[in-house]
Each structure stands twice: as C-alpha cells, then as structure tokens.
Amino acid sequence: MVTDKILPPGSTIGILGGGQLGRMTAQAAARLGYRCIVFAPEEHSVAADVAAGHVRGAYDDTAALARFAAQVDVITYEFENVPEAAVAECLRHRPVRPGVKPIHVAQHRLREKEFFRSLGIGTADYQPIRSAADVAAATALPGILKTCTEGYDGKGQARVATRDELAAAWEKLGRRECILEALVDFQGEVSAIVARGLDGTARCFPIGLNHHSDGILRTTNVPSNLPTRTLATAERFGVELAQGLDLVGLVALEMFVTRDGRVLANEMAPRPHNSGHWTIDACATSQFEQLVRAICGLPLGSVDVLAASRMENLIGDEAADWQRYLEDPTARLHLYGKGTARPGRKMGHVTFVTPLWAAPTSTT
Ligand code: AMP
Fold first, then answer.
1. What is the pLDDT of residues 35-77, one digit of tens each?
2. What are the two backbone dihedrals, phi and then psi, of residue 134, each rounded to the nearest 5 degrees?
C-alpha cells in the first residue's frame, strides 16, 4: 500500500556524519535511486565523496543544520555519538530515523545496560562507579572499567582484577562517571543487526560470529556455527531491543556467548554496524539497503544468506595489501577512500565468499 509516509526513489536522504558507514549508506541509496546529502564538520569526508551534496558545519551550528534539513526528506545518522541536541534540532524540521531515543540510550553505557535489563535482555553483572565509596564497595571483579560516555573501540576502558587496581584505573580515567562490568568468560561474540520499518515490522540479519582484538572488530563469520538455541536467543534480544526503542531504521546489538551457553548483551549501536558488512556481498539485502528501505517506508528486504562469508577489517596499513585481495577470486574488496593509514584506523574491509561455482580462468 502506498501511503504519504513512503519516500519514493528520487527522494533525498540526509546523513549526519561523514564516515565509511555514511559512505556505504549513500552507495546503497544511490542504487535504489535516492540522493544523499551528508552533514559533516570536516572539509573532506569519505561519505560526501560519494553523495550528491555536502553541508559543512559543526554539530551545534543550528543554522547549518536547518540549511541541511531544508534540502532533504528524511534524516539518519551514521554514528551514535552525534550530539543529541543536533538530532533534536534536525527533528524540528524533518523526520529523523531512528530518532533521538536510540542515541540517548546508546550514548551512556549505564543507561544502556539498564535499558537492556528493563527489556529482559541479559547482561553481565555491573555497577556504577561515581565515587570513592563505589570503588571501595565494588564486587564485580575481575572486571572492565569503562567510562559511561565517549568510549569506543576499546578506548576509555581498563581491565581490573582488584579494588586497588580499580581505584588506580578510575583515577587514570579522571574520576569520570564509569561502569564496572564483570569480566565475561565468553566462547564467542555475536551481533544481531535488526531493521525495523515504519509499520513496526522487525527483521534480523543472520547472526554473525565476531572476533575482536584490542577492542576493535577484526573478523565476522557467517554462518556462526553456534547452536540454534543460542542464535534464537541472540535474535530475540535484538528484535526486543528494536521494538523497545520503537525505532525506524537499524540497530546492532553486540553480545557475548558464555562458555555455559548464556547470551549477554554488551552494547548497542542504532546504525549500520561493522559486523554487518558481510551483508553487502553475501546476503540478499545489505544492511545499508535495509536502512534505506526502513527509513523511506519501503518493505524490508530478504535476509537470505547467499554464500558463506568471512569479513576481515583492513586496519591501518593492512589496506596497503589491496593488490593481493584483487588477485584472490574469493575476495570482495572495499576501500573507504581515507587518506592516511593511521594505526587503528579502519581503512577498508574484505569479504571472502565461498563461490558455488568458480568460472574457468580465461587463457587469453
Ligand atoms: P566495548 O567497547 O564495550 O565494545 O568492548 C570492546 C571489546 O572488549 C568487546 O568486544 C570484548 O571483546 C571486550 N569486552 C568488553 N566488555 C567485556 C566484558 N565485560 N567481559 C569480557 N570482555 C569484554
């Protein structure tokens, strides 16, 4: 049914943020005949490189945000640390999907964990650390101390085994508001990426098995080869989160699978997720296309898996190996067009897919 809520191809999508997730969203949108305009503070952004337009401005520049909003039909964001006030400002002019609530929850680790628990989604034991008294009374040890705000990819965290180590780590983090999470002895990490449409229909991509090192995602394997019951729980948690947030768009929920088979939520991101990049090459609908479909009011696409895949991030100078990947017939190379390969910077990814049928090599 066509309603006035549907934004047909030809409409313009505004993206807050200029990184690779915005870039891949713009690429998927273009495929379906949409235009994208990127709002980003930097002069050069890898998302704007592939978009129809770029509005440059600071996230607290209300005039620039209004100018941006006036040029688009719907607005989304590609990173969850976009200031809440910027999203609220955009919302005065245009629909913002997934909205304010998902970033309000995602931007604060304690709020996020409390929200998971309120929905019946399991988490590791955790405690707020806001004072020396909290440190002295801490029991979630050994654990990981994390700042409540502004931490990502393992930044703003410390592993602590004793209260003394906790006290020292909290000092080092500037006595900021923190959460102490009990260390989870996991057999694997998984993520559920769930799209929810304007009509409230939710669909979860098949669960991928993730491997991190130094707090950064390194690989995602699909299928994960975990037991069906574990996968069903992970999927249910993801869908309950999307419904609980009442979001229109995408949300990724990262979870631990403990050695005794429990599923515990770690964190969420209301946007496309690095662990969903495999969907571009090995799923009937990519996570980026699914986001476009959801926020434009289109039916959600099939999440059928087309091939077994393994996604590897290319971090720092690993992207210099691009020639090797081009020579590998099972490799699908994605480079983000970032200039300098700093250590820890995500420069691209490669997805290895298992071909069903390999074409004979040409001899000419
Ligand atoms: P985060 O910044 O919360 O995404 O954490 C980054 C990575 O650190 C996770 O993907 C895990 O590999 C590890 N990690 C975080 N929290 C815990 C925990 N409570 N127990 C064990 N490992 C953790």
1. 999 999 999 999 999 999 999 999 999 999 999 999 999 999 9
2. -65, -40
Candidate of 80, 109, 144, 210 to mutate for ligand 1, largest count of ligand atoms within 8 Å of Cβ: 144
Q: Which fold has domain 125-182?
A: Dna Ligase; domain 1 (3.30.1490)
Atom of ligand 1 nearest to the CA of 185: 21
Residue with tokens 């947030």: 245
User: 55 exposed, middle or buried (CB, 10 Å; 0-12, 13-18, 19+)?
Assistant: buried
| Ligand 1 binding pocket includes 188 (Cβ within 6 Å) | no
Closest residue by Cα to residue 210 from 234, 194, 228: 234
CATH number attached to the domain at 12-96? 3.40.50.20
Question: Cβ(112) to ligand 1 under 6 A?
Answer: no
Decide: 266 in ligand 1 pocket, CB within 6 A.
yes
pLDDT tens by residue, 232-289: 999 999 999 999 999 999 999 999 999 999 999 999 999 999 999 999 999 999 999 9
3-class secondary structure, 8: coil
What token pair was written down for 159?
A: 């592993």
**CA distances to 274, 314, 315, 338 from 341, in Å:** 18, 10, 8, 7
217 HSE (CA, 13 A, CB side): 25
Residue nearest to atom 13 of ligand 1 (CA): 215
Token pair in block for residue 82: 């976009």
Domain extent listing, the chain: 12-96, 125-182, 186-358
**Any idea which fold 186-358 has?**
D-amino Acid Aminotransferase; Chain A, domain 1 (3.30.470)
Closest CA to ligand 1's atom 6: 215
Asked if residues 220 and 210 have their Cβ atoms less than 8 Å apart, the reply is yes
Centre of ligand 1 to C-alpha 184, Å, is 8
What atom in ligand 1 is closest to the CA of residue 212? 12
Tokens of 314: 């290319």
| Residue recorded with tokens 């891949």 | 24
